[in-house]
Structures
1.
Amino acid sequence: MTLTEQQAVRRAVDRVGLGLPAAGRSAAQRRGWPAVRDLLAPTGPDRGGDRVPAPRFRPVGPGKPADEQAKRERRQLLRANATALQTWWLRRMVATDQPFVERMTWLWHGHFATSITKVRSAQVMLQQNDTLRRLGRSSFTELAQTMIVDPALLIWLDGQKNTKASANENLAREFMELFALGHGHYTELDVQRGARCLTGWVLRRSDDHDQTDADAATAVLRPTRHDDTVKTFLGSTGNFGAHDYVDIVLAQPASAPFVASRVWARLISHTAPDPTTLKVLTDAYGPERRIDQLVGAALDSSAFRDEASSLVKEPVLWLVGLLRALGVPATAITDKVADRLLTGLHGLGEVPFVPPNVGGWPSAAGWLSTASAASRMGLARAVVSLAPDAVQAVAGASDPIAAAAAALGVDGWSERTASSLGTLRRHPAQLVALAACSPECVVSR
Amino acid sequence: MNTLEDGAPVIATAAATPPSGPSRRVSALTRRRFLTWSGVAAAGALATGGVALSWERLTRAAYETPLNPSSGVLVIVTLYGGNDGLNAVIPIADPRYASARAHLAYAPGEVLPLTDGLALNPGLTGLKSLYDNGSLAIVNGVGYPTPDRSHFVSMGIWQTGSPSESVPTGWLGRWLDLAPDPVKAVSLDPVLPPLLAGATTAGASLSRSALALPAGAAGTAVRGLARSSSDDGVWQAACARSIGELVTASDTLHDVVVEAQPSGDKGSSGLAEQLDLVASLVELGVPTRVYSVSLGGFDTHADERGRQQSLLTELDRALSGFAGRLGRTDRGSQVVTMVYSEFGRRVVANASQGTDHGTAGPMFLMGRGVVGGLHGQQPSLTDLDGGDLRSHVDFRDVYAATLDRVLGADPGAVLSGWSTSLDGLLS
C-alpha cells in the first residue's frame, strides 16, 4: 500500500518535524510536498528555539575531592547541571521553529552516542550538542572531522589516554564500527594503526571558574604524545594524524552506504533500504557527503511512501511530539514539570545525554516492554494535564474520538482503538492520554 | 488524576479488626488481612503512610546513585500462613515421621534425598539442584523461645525481630532508621509489610501505579488496546502485545487477593513475577539494598499434601528461575535471598489430612557468600514440646548473620543488643 500525499506529509512531519500542532499539520497537508521541502530547509535564526534560555551550569572544577562530604556535594552539583542540560534540550525541542534542525541533532546524538555519566561536565556535553546542531545537516565530512576531536567524545572513548607510548584503541575502533564504516570493513590491524593516527589529543580545560563556561574544554594536539611515524592504515601509507584517519575512513566504499543506512534506520524504517533505494541515497549524499541531500532523497524515495515503512517512536521523540502536537508551550515545562518528564523518560529507558553505551539506544522492540508501556501511560497523563486547551477541543468536538486522532497527528484509528477509546468519551483527558499510548500513536506509520 | 506526583500514600492507618475466633477459615488468611490485624501497620513510620516509588523513580535512582558493586542486596521471601517444615525438609529416615503423619507422609521413593536422613519435598527440584551444587543453605529447626501459635503474633515476632516484647517497628525498618532512605528497602507487595517499618523511616512499595491499570472505564480501555487489530502493521501489533503483557503483569502483581485458595484453583501467585521485577531492578543498578516479596496460602489445615506441594513447586520455580537469572550478571551476584515462614506445623496430622499451627521450621538462603548445605539442627520427633518441635536456632542468629554479612550493619543496633550469630552460614 502506498500512502496518499496527505499521509506522506503527515509521516514526514512525524519523522523529520518532531510533530506539529493540529493546525500546523493540516496547513502543511494542504500545501503538500512543498511544505516538507520547507521543513527540510529552514533559514534564518530559530526564533522559537532561541527563546529558550541557555542552560546555566554551576562551576564544578576539575579533580575529585578527597573527603566524603565534598564528594557528595560534587556529585549533587554534577547531577543538577545534567538536569539543567536535559531540561534545556527538552524545552528547545518543544519550542523550536526549525524542528528538522533539532531532529537531526537528536539523530546524531544517538549516532555518536556520548553519555554524561562518564563525561561528567554538562558544559562539555553542551559543546558537543552545539556541534551536532551546527553541523548535523551539512557535510558528514565536516561533522566527522569535528567529532574526532570533540572533547566529550574524547573523554567518552578515552581519546586523551591514547598516546604513542600507550595506545588506546577505543575511539579508533568505535569510530569505524559505529560511526562511519560498519563492522567487517576493517581489520584488527587497521584498528591498531588507526589508534596510532589518533594519538596525542588531550583536553585543555577552562580554568576560569567565574565564567558560565567554566568546565568547558578544548582539544589540543600534544606533539610529544603523538605517534609521528609512517603507518599503513586501510590500504593507505603515510604519517597520518586524526584528520587523515577520518578522510581515509570516509573514503572507503563501505562508508557512504553505512552512513546512509544508519540515517534511514532512524528516520524512515526499521527495515533496511533495498539496493536500488540505497544507491539513490548514496548518490544524493555524493562526494560532498551532504546529509541534507541524503535525507531529502530518503523522503523523496518511493519506499518512504510504502505503508510498511514504520518506526517505533523513540521515547524522547514520542514525548516531544506529544507535547508539540498538544500545543504545550515550552514555558509550561517548569523545572518541576521537567523533573516529572525526565523521570518518565527514565522509566521508558531513554534520557537525553544518557545513552546506555556507545552503540546508542535500542530501537524498535526495545521500546515495547511491559515497564515502558506502564511508564508511557503515566507520562502521557502528565503531558495531557499540561494541555487543557487541547483536551477542551477534543471534549467539545462532535466526534471526540476522531478529534483525538486529529490532535495527535494520527491518520485514523483502527476499529480496536476507536472502540477502546469509545469507553472514555466522557473523560476527554483520559481519552487523549490513552490515545497517545495506542499502537497507532506509539508507532509512526 | 494523578499527574505530576507519583507518591501517593499506600497505607492509611489500619483499622484493626480481630480475627474471627480460633476456627478461622483457611481462605481467610490473606496478606492484607494479616497486615491489618498485626497492629504493626498502624504504628511506627507506617502510620503516616509509606512512600510508593514508581518504576521510573527507581530507574532514575539507578542512574543517579547506582548500587555500589561491593554492597550486598538482601531479598526477603515471606511465606505467609505457616509453611509445614516437616513436609518441606523431610526427616524421611525417621520412622516416627511416617507414623505421625499417616496419609500426609511422603514415602522414601517420592522425595529428593539430601544427607543426614533428610530429604526435600518432591516439589523442590530446583532447590535440590542448588543444594547439590552447594549454593543453597538450609537452616533447620529455626524458631524463638516460647513459641506463639497465632499467625498474627508469630508473624509479628518474625517481622519485628522481637519475641519477648511487642515493638512497633520491623527489624529492617530499624536498619533503615540507621541511615534513612526509603529507596533502600522496597516491597514488591503493594502493601508495605511491617518488617520494613522503622520508627522514623519506612521502606517503599513499588508503586501500584507503576504497573496497575487505572480503574473503571480507563482500565477497560487499556485492556481494549491490548487486542490485536487487522489494521496493525508488525510494530503496531508488537505495541499492542506489550500493552497485553502490562495487563497480565498488572493482574498478577497487583491483585492482593492472589492467595492460594483451598479449592486448589489458586491461579498465579505472582512470586515469580515479583522476583523477576526484583532481578530487573538489581540489574539496572537500583540502589535498593532490601527487597521484600511474598507467597501466601501455606495455612494448610486440610488436604495439605497436594496444596503444599503445589505451593512449594511454585516457590521452587520462582527461586530457581531467580537464582539462574541473577547468576548471569555481576550485579545479580550481589544478592542474598532468604526464605522464612512464621512457624512450622504440628508433628501429628489432624483429621482433615492437614496440620495445625506449630513451631520451629526450616529457612532457606542462597546467593553471595551463602555456605551451601545443612545448618542448624533438625528437631527431634520424640523430644517434643507439647506435641511440637523444639527449635535449635533462634531466628535472630540468622538475621544477625545477614545484617552483618549482607547489609554491613551492626546486628546489635538493629536487634536490641542481640550479640550472637549463626556461624558458618555466610562467608
2.
Amino acid sequence: MRFLALTGGQTALLGLLTAATIIALYFLKLRHRRVFVSSSLLWHRVLDDRQSHSLMEKLRRIISIIIAVTIALLIAISLARPEIEALTGKNERIVIVMDTSPTMGTHTSDGKTRWDHAVAQANSLLTSGGPTTEFRISDSSGRIASSFTTDRNEIRDLLSKMKPVAADPQMPKVDATDSLVYFVSDGVTIPQVPKEVKRISVFEKANNVGITAFELRTRPSIPPVYDAYLEVQNFGGEPVQADITVSGVGGQRISRSLNLAAEESFQETFDLTPFEGGPIRATAESKNDSLPADDIAFAYLPIKRRSRTLLVTKGNTYLQTLLKLDSFVDLTVVDPASFKEGDFDAYVFDRFAPPTVPARPSLIIGAPDAPWLRPGQGVIQKPPITTWSESHPIMQFVSVHDMTIERAVRIDARDLTVVAASNQTPLIVASDRPRWVMLAFDLDSTDFPFHVGFPVFVDNVLAWFSRDQLAIHRVPGTIEVPLQNAQIRSIDNKTIEAQPQLGKTVFEAIEPGLYTATQGDARIRIAVNLSNREFSDVNRSAFRNDAIPVSGQRLLKRELWFYMLFVAIVLIAGEWFTYHKRITL
Amino acid sequence: MSTTSNVTLFDDEFLKKLEYLNIISKRLFAGQLKAERRTRKRGTGLEFADYRAYVSGDDFRHLDWKAYLRLNRLILKLFEEEEDLPIYFFVDVSQSMNYGQPSKLDYAKRVAAALCYIGLANLDRINIIAYADKVRGELPPQRGKGRIFKVFRFLSDVDAGGETNALDSLKTYCTSTRRRGLAVVISDFFDQHGFEPALDILRHFRHDIFVVHIASHEEMDPHLRGELLLVDSESQQSREITITPSLLSAYHAEYNRFCEQLESYCWKYQLGYVRTATDFPFEELVLKVFRQGRFVK
C-alpha cells in the first residue's frame, strides 16, 4: 500500500494519533452518571447474579472500542489517499497530445476520418490506468491544453472541443520525466517527436487530389485586370481523373477535366476579365477523394466601379489628362478658389489643401499648408529615395528607385505610414484615418510623372481609397484581421463571432471560406483556404505505433479512500443501531 | 428524593379523610371492635383512664351509673390497669424511605396517622416507634381522639436518616416493652439483614403483625439508562453499572421476587399484608387494611 496525499510516516502518525484520541475519548465517555437509589439491595442481587457474564461485559467494551477506533482510522487514513495497486491499478500520469492538423480530417477506408480514430485511441487511453491516474490533454494547434486531473470526463469534454484545423501544427512541449506522453497522430505534419513520447499512429494511405494554390493576381494595367492562378496536385498513389472548376457570382465558369498521374500537379492561370466582381470559387473533384478541405478554395475579385473624382488644381495638364484617360474615373476639375466639398468618391489636391480635413479620401500633392496637416519643416534639395514599401497597396507594380526629386518639403510623419522616404525626410506618406496620401513634393519638381509607374501609382491610390481590394489570404484556424472592432460575416452573410484585440479582430474559421470584415467604411475580405502542399500530401508519413494502450487491470473503479469512507459510514450506522440496542457502549 | 412539607402533610383535607375513615370503620365494624382484641383483667384499677360504651362481657361494676341516669346509656369506666392490647406502629424512617415522588416516608406518615386516628377513635392505645438503624423516636402510648395532634406532631418531627436495621430496632423495643399487641410495620423492607429476622422477633413476642409494604414507582419501574454510578442512599455505597434492557428485565424480576417473598412470609405466618405504591390514595389503602379484617377486630 502506498499513500498519495501523505508519506507513510505521516500516515502512521495520523493513525496513531487518531486511535489514541478515540480511545481517550471513549474512556472519557464512559464516566458514569451518579444516580441515587433508595436501596441498592436488589441491584446488587441482580448484578451479582450476572457475575458469570462479566466476560461478555468485557468483550462488549472491547468490541465497542475496536469499532470506534476502526471507524476513526478508516476516515483518517482515507485522507492520505491510500492506494493498493492490486485493487486500484497503478497510479500514473498520462499526457495525451492530439494532432489537430488538417490531414487528420482525411477519410479512412471505414468511412471515418483519421481524427475519429485518434479520438477513439484517446478514449482508450482514458479507460486505462487506475482511479488515481491523472490525465492531461493538449493539441498541436496550441488552442486547447489542460492541467493534470483524475476527472476523465473533464478530459473527454476537452477532447470533444478539439477539431482538426490548420494553424501551424507543432508538438507542444511536454515533460516526460514523471509521466507517460502519448502523441496520437497520422505523422504527416509532425513526423518527428521526442523519443520519450510514445506514438500512436492513425495513419492510413488515402487518395487525395487537392488545390495547393489559388490566388488572384493583378495584371499591371489601368484599370486593373485580374488573373486567377490555380494549382492542383494528385497526392494519391494512383492516377485519377479530376474535374477543375473556377466559378464566379455572375455564373461565369471555367472548367477543366484532367487526368493526373500519381504525384502529378497541374497549374494554370485563368483570365478573369469576363468575370463579374465578387467571390470566386475553385473546386477540384475526384473519385474517392479523402480530404474534402483542400478540394475547394476561395478568392475575391474586386468589383469594378467608377470613382467620382474631383481634381483641385490651378492647372496641371498631365494630371488632368492622366485622370481623364482612366476609364474608371469620372473626373471633375475645379480651381482651388472654387473648391467646395461635394458628392465625390475621392479628391486630388494639386498643391492645395482645404482648410478642414476633407470628408473624402484625398491625394495631396506638394505638402501644402493646412491647419489639419503638420507644417513643413523646411525644404530639402534633391532628396534621393532610399526606402519604399512595396507591400503597400499604393505601391503595387510601382518602382521609384530611379525617381529624381529636385526639392521636397521636410514633413513630420508621426502617426502616418511612410510609403517612400529619403534619409532626410519622408517623401510619400499615407494616412489611414482619415484616408489620404501625400507627396512631399510637387509634380513640377520631379520626374515621377514621366515614369511608367506614375499612372499605376495614381490608379493604386484611387483604388486604395474606395475601390474593392483583393482578399487577404489565410489558412483555416485562428484568423487575425488588421481592422479593430470589425464585424465578421461569412460568404452567406452570417455573422461570425469575433474577439476584438489591440488594433485587430480575431475569429475562428475551421473550414475554407470567404469572409468579410467591416468596420465603418473600411472593409477587408479574407479568403481562408487550405491551399498548402504540406496539408494536402496526406500520405507523407512514416509514423509507426510505439505503444498500444492497454486497459490496466483493476478491481475497484474508484480510489480506495471512497470505499474506506463507505465502510466507515456503514460501521457508523451499524454502531448507532447497536448502541441504541445497548449491545455496544 | 423529596418530602412534602410538614405543614401540608396533615392538612384540613387530610383530617376530613380521617374522619371519613373513622365513620367507615365504625360502620364496618360496629359491635365487633373491642372485645376480641382487648382482654380484661379483673381487679381494681384506680386511675380513671377513659370511658367507653358497655358491651356484653364487661365488668358491670365499672359501669358509670351517673352517666346512665343522665344519658340512659351504659358507659363503662376504664382504669389504667385494664389490659387492652395496644397498637404499635413501627414506622421505618431510614434513608431509603426518603425516596420517590411523593416520598415513601411522607406516605408512611399519612398511613400511620390515619391508622392511629382510627385506633384512637376506638379508644385503642397507640404507640408509634420510628426506627431505622435503631429506634429513632417513640411516641408514648396515647389514647383518645384528642391525642391525634400529638401523633401529627410526632410524625411531622421525625426525619429520615440512617440505614435500616429492623432486627436491632425491634429487638430493642420489644424487649423493653414486653406487652403484646398489634404491631403494624410500615416500611419498604429494604434491609440488608433481611425482613424475616425483624418480623420473627415480633412473632416471638406474640404480637399480631400487620405489614404495610410501601414502594415507589421509581423502584418498581426505574427509568434508568446508560452508564451509571448507582449510589445507595443509606450506605452511600456506589457501584458502576451499565443499564441494558436485559438488566432492567432482571431487576424487575428480582423486585417482584422480593415482594412475593415478603407476601409469602406473611401468608405463611398468617400476618396481615398489604402492598402499595406511593401514588395509591392512602385512604383507599386504609380501607383495604380494614377489609382485610385484621387491623380492627
